[in-house]
C-alpha cells in the first residue's frame, strides 16, 4: 500500500511539474532558466518513479 501511495504521489508531482514547465515555456520561451529548472525537476521526479518501480526501498533516500 505504501508503495502505491508513493507512486501516486510521484505521478501527481510529475503532472504538477509538467504543467508548470509548459506554462513557463509558453510565457518565457523554451530556453528560459525557469523552464530548464522545471525540466530538471521533472527528470528527477521521473527517475524517482522508475526507482520506486524497480526497488521500493529507495523511497526514504530520494527527494525532489
Describe the fold and architecture.
The structure is a single chain. This protein is an all-alpha fold. It contains 2 helices and no strands. Helix 1 (2-28) packs antiparallel against helix 2 (33-54). The longest helix has 27 residues, at 2-28. The protein is elongated, with a radius of gyration of 13 Å. The mean pLDDT is 85.
Termini distance? Answer: 21 Å
Indicate the percent of residues in helices: over 70%
The SSE order reads HH
Q: Count helical runs.
A: 2
What ranges have pLDDT less than 50 throughout 5 or more consecutive residues?
Answer: none
Shape: elongated
Average pLDDT metric:
85
Q: What value does the Rg take, in angstroms?
A: 13 Å
Structural class: mainly alpha
Number of strands: 0
Task: Sum this structure up briefly.
With 64 residues, the chain is an all-alpha fold. 77% of the residues lie in helices and 0% in strands.
Amino acid at each position: 500500500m505504501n508503495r502505491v501511495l508513493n507512486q501516486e504521489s510521484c505521478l501527481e508531482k510529475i503532472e504538477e511539474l509538467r504543467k508548470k514547465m509548459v506554462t513557463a515555456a509558453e510565457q518565457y520561451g523554451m530556453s528560459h532558466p525557469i523552464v530548464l529548472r522545471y525540466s530538471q525537476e521533472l527528470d528527477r521526479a521521473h527517475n524517482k518513479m522508475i526507482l520506486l518501480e524497480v526497488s521500493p526501498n529507495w523511497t526514504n533516500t530520494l527527494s525532489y
